[in-house]
Design a protein that fits this description.
15 helices; ABC transporter involved in vitamin B12 uptake, BtuC; globular; mainly alpha
């Protein structure tokens, strides 16, 4: 019965994701018929069976070169952040944990700011995502070294060192931004990037992020049982045969890999890793094998819809994607806090 329910929920989420993808490609400053969207996609994927002679070249450019890569990047980023949230909430045994809690996001921001201020972002298109990704991994390395003593990495030490490093990296980013204010264009690009967004995303960004996010999601599924046991406590997990320290290392790296890949191509997108896993957990239960897959599907749909809203809520100007997700996430986060405090007060 549980398997049937899980399959039904996954099928529903897949259908929702498909509808969101079609809507994300069809709706915009130039609205296209969904049939035109499907014709272009089918013609590009299967040109022998679906020739594109009947489709206008302008529609082909809009669909295949502008909107499809953007929607795919949104789907992967939403899925990656949601799964990173699942991993962090399970690892820290706290439904209020989110992917940036170990300072990975701040490391990615610093890497991006360095690239902006040195001018490399203008010279090389891939310099920005690569620098952000490297900054995320380096910040994880520092946090892990600081928190590890005698081969053990206490979760509390990991959390505290992550918070401290995030504050330091944010200060360094702010310093570089303040020094670059004299160049208004550079400062504007940095601020816009830090607000998050998917404008001008291309197939290059898809290939830069998708492989890492897919690998991260697959590893998360492989370690779903370990997460289930770690939620019960490290002692209980060790008694049931889990190599606690090895599992924590791998899960931390996976969370950083997912978060760094997402921040590298989309900027700072907040609250997705907090909202989606918590809502899915309320619907489908605490088993991480289910949570990882369903959260990935729900996160992809959620971010596609947020990006669609960002493009259409105030045309012709785009609202930054991070603003939309924060506007949805902040009230939900406050509700979670109120609910948590009420549960504690009733004990």
């Amino acid at each position: 019965m549980a398997i049937h329910r899980e399959a039904s929920i996954c099928s529903l989420l897949l259908a929702v994701l498909l509808v969101c993808c079609i809507a994300g490609v069809s709706i915009g400053s130039t609205t296209l018929q969904w049939t035109t969207t499907m014709q272009v996609i089918a013609g590009k994927l299967l040109p022998f069976w679906f020739p594109l002679q009947s489709t206008a070249p302008a529609d082909q450019v809009i669909v295949w070169l502008i909107r499809v890569p953007r929607v795919i990047v949104a789907a992967f980023v939403g899925a990656g952040l949601a799964v990173a949230g699942v991993v962090m909430q399970g690892l820290f045994r706290n439904p209020l944990a989110e992917p940036n809690v170990i300072g990975v996001g701040s490391g990615a921001v610093l890497g991006a700011v360095i690239v902006f201020t040195t001018g490399l972002a203008v010279q090389f298109a891939v310099a920005l995502p690569i620098a952000a990704f490297c900054g995320a991994l380096l910040s994880l390395l520092v946090v892990y070294i600081v928190a590890t003593r005698g081969g053990a990495t206490p979760v509390a030490a990991l959390l505290l060192s992550g918070i401290a490093l995030a504050a330091l990296l944010s200060a360094l980013s702010s310093l570089l931004i303040s020094l670059s204010v004299v160049n208004w264009q550079v400062a504007q690009e940095i601020v816009f990037w830090m607000m998050g967004g998917l404008d001008a995303r291309s197939w290059t960004h898809v290939w830069l992020s998708a492989p890492f996010i897919v690998v991260g999601i697959v590893i998360s599924l492989v370690y779903a049982r370990d997460l289930d046991l770690l939620v019960q406590g490290e002692e209980a997990a060790a008694a049931l045969g889990v190599d606690v320290e090895a599992s924590k290392r791998i899960l931390i790296v996976v969370a950083a890999l997912l978060t760094g890949s997402c921040v590298a191509v989309a900027g700072v997108i907040g609250f997705v890793g907090l909202i989606v896993p918590h809502v899915i957990r309320l619907i489908i239960g605490p088993l991480h094998r289910r949570l990882v897959l369903t959260s990935a599907l729900a996160g992809a749909s959620f971010l596609i819809l947020c990006d669609l809203l960002a493009r259409t809520v105030h045309p012709p100007t785009e609202v930054r994607l991070g603003i939309i997700t924060a506007a949805c996430g902040a009230p939900f986060f406050l509700l979670l806090l109120v609910r948590k405090y009420r549960e504690v007060s009733q004990l």
